[in-house]
Predict the structure.
Amino acid sequence: MKKIVLIRHAKSSWANSGSDDFSRPLNQKGIEESKTISRALTEKIAKPDIILTSSAHRALSTARYFASAFSYPEESIIKDKTLYLASRQEILKTISRIDPKHSLVFLIGHNPTITEFACYLCNASIASLPTCSAIGIEFETDAWDLISNSKAKVLFLEYPKENIFF
């Protein structure tokens, strides 16, 4: 069995309009969301084998809060620039390269792709995952490159309660 937790990055700041989208930091609400949701997940799922994140500042910052909550070494977070604007197929390709010895992966990314990817894997319809939401999915396979063809079971959906709109 393989498990993946898809996490949309936490709320980011538009205050510094001079910075590009890739460099936007988390705002105070995003920091609080990250702390709250990462702590909540420690009661729902085990420590990840891998944390894989977009290298955009807000996604990497979100990943660091999750790493801290799970006592996962921050220096082991895998940063992947392609996840910033990745398509569903590019995310699948990235996941398919994960060593099969790993069973649980956290993947931090961006909308709309993270929502579209969750819908695709679960064969479900979700309008939009709110910032810092996390959906845990289990697959009936032992191979990462077969998850898209495997039966998927949603284990949980965790989100900042005030952000829910689907």
